[in-house]
Specification:
The protein is an alpha/beta fold. It is about 20% helix and about 30% strand. Residues about 145-150 have low confidence and may be disordered. The structure holds beta-D-glucopyranuronic acid. Beta-D-glucopyranuronic acid (BDP) binds next to loops.
């Protein structure tokens, strides 16, 4: 799959805006059209749009519907309907015909609707959306109706993670066209720092050859068995780097019998990432990751794509001198990753596998995990900002059943992409059993918050001790991918105590001091970039308040210190 674009051979329009909405209060009878209960916005989560509690907490089926016309100029073209994400499960009907379904929110899916879409009548599009998680889904949920032991026990709604399980058509819906004769189905661009660019592609329909043009270079490749592969060199290539987003474009034309069937331009950057000893190297130079774990989360829209929020967030990252974030705990919108490409922000791209619990894992959990991981790598592998894959966050990787499971995940990613390091984010510290499969150790540690509350000096000792044990065991670079303290903006205390801005500042700066004293620590990602909405639970005061910024993106005190600290490069 490639990101839809309008080109000389392709048309594109979006089906965003106001749709009809109804909960599935009885089974059946919706696919041919229904009487709406409400109107709903696309893209958006639906949960926080309405005033009634039962809508917010609804995880069973809901239905979206809208009508659209097809312009007659597009008759004769191949027509594709694409959803950039539907969380968690989407089942799609066009004019009463079931097109198919897709599981695991956060990755795109599409259907060829050429034979179903009408040109002489209005089209009726109905989508069933469901957000029920189980032991077979990724992320897992509703673990045998048994509240998870630990900090999230008995929260409402009951999920094994704390962020609110928002649902809906949260990203754009698109209709695009290609020629019926031949079209580019997928493309992979891999680069080396000497300017070598390898491009391979898969073709739908047929074509004789692919003609590629990039930066004044033109090469041709024959299409054999529906695929082509070729390479070329950009002399004196300008490398893609942090806040230096040099980008190139390769125009790919598919040709048959002298006719141009398809034209598509793929953007890419020339850059290399690798792990050597205790360093992550970007373009041969060590890079220290300073930034945050985040969430796609904002008042009212929930996890809905909003370009203004994305722009503001990146402005704040630049202001605070961060260079990176992890897409905790699921793939973020492709539009956001594209913005990272354009701005030079480093991304650790994470599968939506948070809190996998091996007490409940089934073969179907692994199958769902492998499927969504493959979809993520396919979606993001041409984006230069994506410099590392994270296959999961905080699984019970102290249990032996986790070993074959994570081996399978690591093998899948490496088979699909050998150009990026792979990590897994553990909460099991030195008791983790799967780090042999990964290049960088990611670890979430909360001394000073969940244990040793209020005791910054003790927390620092604890952190040092844990990191030393981990390094002794794993002998790999370690990134502290989460640490921090819940903080109510405007709450002050001298001496510092939990929940105050002073405490967050002291704890975070103290943790960083320890990390920077240990040569093998290659990154500090604070939890979290901004406050975010969670399920209801006595450990959360109006959501998770570990944000350095508030939910409406204003800085807490710690930000001003981080801005200063992060202005100085970690490695000379
Ligand atoms: C970590 C999780 C993260 C939570 C965080 C917290 O990875 O999703 O939000 O704890 O408790 O364990 O704030």
């Amino acid at each position: 799959m490639i990101y839809p674009k309008r080109t000389r051979t392709r048309d594109l329009f979006e089906l965003n805006g106001i749709w009809d909405f109804a909960r599935e209060l009885q089974p059946g009878g919706f696919a041919d059209g229904f009487v709406p209960e409400k109107q709903v916005a696309v893209p958006s989560s639906f949960n926080d749009l309405f005033t009634e509690e039962e809508f917010r907490m609804w995880h069973k089926g809901v239905w979206y519907q809208r009508r659209f016309d097809m312009p007659k100029m597009l008759k004769g073209e191949r027509i594709v309907l694409r959803f950039n994400s539907v969380s968690y499960r989407g089942e799609v009907f066009l004019n009463g015909t079931r097109l198919g379904d897709h599981e695991t929110g956060y990755t795109p899916f599409e259907f060829d609707i050429t034979d179903v879409v009408g040109f002489d009548k209005e089209n009726l599009l109905c989508v069933r959306v469901e957000n029920l998680l189980s032991t077979d889904t990724v992320p897992m949920g509703n673990l045998n109706n048994k509240p998870e032991p630990g900090q999230f026990a008995g929260q409402y709604p009951d999920t094994p993670f704390d962020f609110f399980p928002y649902s809906g058509i949260q990203r754009p819906v698109m209709v695009y066209t290609t020629s019926k004769k031949g079209w580019l189905e997928s493309v992979v661009v891999a680069t080396s720092n000497d300017g070598t660019v390898n491009v391979s592609g898969k073709i739908g329909g047929g074509a004789e050859k692919a003609v590629l043009s990039c930066d004044g270079v033109r090469v041709e490749a024959l299409v054999v068995d529906g695929a082509f592969a070729t390479s070329f060199k950009i002399e004196g290539a300008r490398l893609w780097d942090v806040w230096e987003p040099n980008l190139y474009h390769v125009a790919i034309q598919l040709v048959a019998g002298g006719e141009l069937l398809d034209e598509y331009t793929q953007r890419f950057g020339v850059r290399e990432v690798k792990v050597e000893g205790n360093r992550i190297l970007l373009n041969g130079k060590p890079v220290y990751f300073q930034g945050f774990g985040r969430h796609e989360d904002f008042p009212i829209i929930g996890k809905g794509l909003n370009h203004s929020v994305n722009i503001r967030d990146h402005e704040l990252l630049k202001w605070i001198n961060a260079n990176s974030y992890r897409t905790t705990h699921y793939p973020y919108s492709e539009e956001l990753i594209q913005l990272c490409d354009e701005q030079g922000i480093l991304i650790i791209s994470e599968a939506p596998a948070v809190s996998i619990n091996f007490e409940f894992v089934t073969e179907r959990t692994l199958a769902a995990h492998l499927k969504v991981l493959a979809e993520l790598v396919e979606r993001d592998r041409n984006y230069p900002s994506v410099v590392m894959w994270s296959v999961a966050n905080e699984a019970t990787t102290n249990r032996p059943e986790s070993i074959p499971y994570f081996k399978a995940l690591s093998e899948l990613v490496r088979a699909m992409d050998s150009t990026r390091p792979v990590t897994m984010i553990t909460c099991k510290a030195e008791h983790d059993l799967v780090m042999e499969f990964f290049d960088v150790v990611g670890v979430n540690l909360y001394p000073g918050w969940y244990h040793l509350p209020g005791q910054v000096e003790e927390a620092k000792k604890d952190l040092r001790h844990t990191l030393e044990k981990m390094y002794a065991k794993f002998q790999k670079p370690i990134m502290v991918t989460e640490f921090g303290a819940d903080t109510i903006a405007g709450l002050h205390a001298l001496p510092a105590e939990q929940w105050s801005e002073e405490y967050q500042t002291e704890l975070i700066l103290g943790m960083i001091e320890v990390m920077r004293d240990l040569d093998y620590v290659v990154g500090e990602h604070i939890w979290n970039f901004a406050d975010f909405r969670t399920a209801q639970n006595f450990v959360r005061v109006g959501g998770n308040k570990k944000g350095a910024f508030t939910r409406d993106r204003q800085p807490k005190m710690v930000c001003h210190f981080l801005k200063k600290l992060w202005a100085q490069p970690r490695y000379p």
